[in-house]
Amino acid sequence: MRKILCFIVIFVLIFLNLNLAQTNAEDFTPSPNPIVVEAFVSNFYKTNGYVFQHYSRTIFKDQIIFFNYHIKDNLNVPENEKRWSTFYKKTGTPTVFVNGTYNYAGYMEYDEEIQKAINTKNYPIDIQIIPEKDQIVIKMKTHQKLTDLSLVALVYEDEVWQMVENDDKDCFHPYTVRRILTNPSGDYFTIQPDLLITKKYKIPIKLNRQMGIVVFVQNSKSNVIYGSGHIKVSDKPITTLYWNSYDPSIIKTDTKTIGKYVYLHTGYDNMILKAIKPSYLKTVNIKIEPYYLKGHFELSHVIPLIPNTEIRFSKIAGTIYAIFPEEINSDQTVDLFNLVLRCTNPEYYLDFPVTKLFVNDSEENPCGWTYVQLRHYYINTVAIYPNPLDINEDYIVDKHDLDKIIYEFGQLSKDKTYDLKYDVFPPALSLLEADRDKHGDGRIDIQDIILVERETWIYDPPKS
What we know:
Elements: H1 2-27, E1 35-41, H2 47-60, E2 64-70, H3 78-87, E3 95-98, E4 101-104, H4 111-119, E5 125-131, E6 135-142, E7 146-161, E8 172-180, E9 187-191, E10 197-202, E11 211-219, E12 225-232, E13 239-243, E14 270-276, E15 281-288, E16 297-304, E17 310-314, E18 319-328, E19 333-343, E20 349-351, E21 354-360, E22 369-371, E23 381-383, H5 399-407, H6 446-456
Parallel strand pairs: 1-2, 13-22
Antiparallel strand pairs: 1-3, 3-4, 5-6, 6-10, 7-8, 7-9, 7-11, 11-12, 13-14, 14-19, 15-18, 15-21, 16-19, 17-18, 20-23
Helix pairs in contact: 5-6
């Protein structure tokens, strides 16, 4: 009888162990594990540092996760300084750590270091992040016995508009750490081979679609990272806003080279704000500082490009508040509105800062967005070329240009009085020096007249 009972007990224990192992296997799905890049920044951190970060994120995409701990400015949270001074034992900003290893005291390029970390990546610990109502559940597993480990969990936000006093008067702050959920130096633990470890952490702030959660494990002595996990609050792609032409590679130099740093658009007199793959997009609230336009341009008016859009525009304050009739969700690029500027000086490019930008859903929560060509100085240069349809070169396309081209109607390229500047259709592929004269079809006809007439609509839109 005892033997039978022993066999039953052993069988039950084996069954329970097998069932537990199976449950563990089924319940553990590792989250994406990007290379971790940490930057400690302050109010002296200049915009060009953010450009390098944006460039790195563009190049390496989901292979890395980049975030900024703000120190001693109004985006600082107390845990940031403790992690900076206590765990990493640093005193200066900006400082950058790639994979837990101190890399660069500054905001210059560190792409080679990131590429090396990707090529030599060895994360023995898999991490799963499970979001719940007001907490996260973290599960970890490895095939090795590892000691001296430090677990860090944090919440970051992709874009934060916050005025920080520095040389650039910078307002947009990407990849900002909003809260560290663990001890700033990490919570210490040891892990055994093939044993699933579970930890839970409360989230003390309200999450929005701009936010993400990062969890990573470091060796507490060498600081080398052994594993990471990353999830976004929203499963929708980030909405990218840009003016006119979008260059996903951004720039890596401050040299004002036509076609590389100075961005091209179709004419000096209008700028279209576009959105790539927008989700939940209901309102755009943007402020352009008119002071920087003085002597070169003046704001004219805004043309909505989505029917039934409400536009609240002040040319004096430089504010545009666009309210769309319903939330915009699209897997395409959507034209939002046309900002019309009148050129008052023959400048070929224009620098101006966008000093405020909010992009929200119907409940006035951030819809999840980023931007290109909206940041002061480094990405905010808009190319301003003379409009080829400005026939009389008075910096505006109007009825006077239309009258001139009508007068040339019927001219052919073989005629002695033919002038290429009136032969505007088809237009050049671009206004770069190599392309700008490659327009026309050898005759000045109704197509040239229609092209100029439509351009005058920017200043006097036809009534619908």
